[in-house]
Design goal:
Blueprint: E1 15-18, H1 28-44, E2 47-50, H2 62-75, H3 103-115, E3 119-122, H4 126-138, H5 154-162, E4 168-171, E5 177-182, E6 186-191, E7 199-202, H6 210-220, E8 225-229, H7 236-245, E9 252-256, E10 259-260, H8 276-282, H9 286-294, H10 309-315, E11 326-327, H11 330-343, H12 346-362, H13 372-382, H14 392-396, H15 418-438, H16 442-456, H17 460-472, H18 480-487, H19 489-502
The structure holds one RNA strand of 77 nucleotides.
Amino acid sequence: MTEPLEPGLSTGQPRVRIAPSPTGPLHIGTARTALFNFLFARHVGGTFLLRLEDTDVARSSLAYEKDILDGLHWLGLSWDEGPGVAGEEARGPHAPYRQMERLPLYAEAADRLRAADMAYPCFCTADELDAERKRLEAARLPPRYSGRCARLTEAERAALTAQGRWAALRFRVGEGVVTFDDMVRGRVEIDVANLGGDFVIVRGDGTPLYHFTVVVDDAAMRITHVIRGEDHLSNTPKHILLFRALGKEVPRFAHLPLILNPDRTKMSKRKSQTAIGDYIAEGFIREGLVNYLALLGWSTGTEEEVLGLGELCARFELEAVHKGGAVFDRERLEWLNGQWIRKLAPAELAERVRPFLEAERIAGRIDRMPSDDEILTLIPLVQERLPVLGAIGDLVGFLFVDRLAVGASLLIPKRWDAATTRAGLTAAREVIAAAGSVAFEADELEPPLRALAEARGWKAGDLFMAIRVAVTGRTATPPLFDTLVALGSERTLVRLDAAVAQLPEDRP
RNA sequence: GCCCCCAUCGUCUAGAGGCCUAGGACGCCACCCUUUCAAGGUGGAGAUCAGGGGUUCGAAUCCCCUUGGGGGCACCA
């Protein structure tokens, strides 16, 4: 018995990967797949690596690459091996981790398949293939490559090449049934006859195609578990055939249920918000997003559902992943996000909310950026009122506006008329001014204002509502007295005066 | 068209033959708390477990069929 040069896949440490294609911003589905790979790796003590599949040069861009890498980092899904970014060295023994930098590997593998006649050059043009596909479609037949170039002799090939025709490389799928045991779906059997004929692995221009590069790289990087979306289930036989043809051990597969649009089709940009960046921009926080994504297609089996990344790593089981697709439910995401916002330490929340206030200022919705201390004092008022961080402007933006625009009709509480409102605000102004001369604190404000309401026979709630609208411009705000304190005595009085001045004349 | 996969409240799900007159969560509706809004608490509506056949003393759970849904079938990934 000779020692194998490398340990068998089955005996080594588990190795998984996320292999995004930089042809668009980080997609919710990619993030979820990355998360499940990450959770699996952390749970079993394996290695999680990132590989960029950028062979579609026309659609790939560095901007998308950055968006994807930044997004995964933001989510906290750090990889153990991955490409070099921003001048930094790649991490891991299988570099490079960017497919366009691994071209020689694919060329070598392609040559081997070609030499063994497991793949052959195909001279069909795009137009010819197109016409063929259309003909089959018209005849209500499944699309499939005819195999026209499969039996060309070397002499014929040479002649075609001499004509200047470029050849793509096609892999011979042969015959038989491919069987594999998917870790979430169980046994899957697919007849090779249904694969659509011999498929292209290298384009006419020499660049390799996805089905080929994944396999070459998964083998080279010694991936033990391929965890990916269900949309790849039907492609798996092609990959298995390729692993075998290259003489490589076939990894285990686990196909995750798809994330769905409300109409239960595969989640798409057209019907849903799919870019992680858009969720970040709205103020979803990583804890909420990660927690929500983990629960799309998996559960602990218990009734616990508010779980942090650490807990998720500890409890995740691939075997417990569902088979059916899951509709993306924004309401539930918001609820979970709110749960996590409430769990944040005040200083932490203050820090996370700051960029959103800056955005308000840049958008011109507020006139002044509050100091860090100011933000911190606001946290108790907003922490349990934020479904997303981006809601901060709506909640307390009025504090940082120079001139408040208040709708005149809003100024008068439901049970009050203009005269009562005028009387109420005028009286309240005096009480507040008096309190302000001592100490402008919530505890100093509330008792005298309640007393005022009682003395005049007003419902405290009506008086408070009149003040609230006069001073904030809205009917829904954080607790009134805290709000007045945050505003400060002087500005409170100015706003009360402005409101009284704006009140419509009393009807005779 | 062909192949593959899937199927429990509107949504996310618990459920691995008797614990299920199907549990939890989101959302929804009440009520409580309350100066508004939230948060929190309590309660409620909401699923004949897609339908039909089996197997079994017993099925949401096992098998088959039907139906419905989804995915894949590119010189995209």
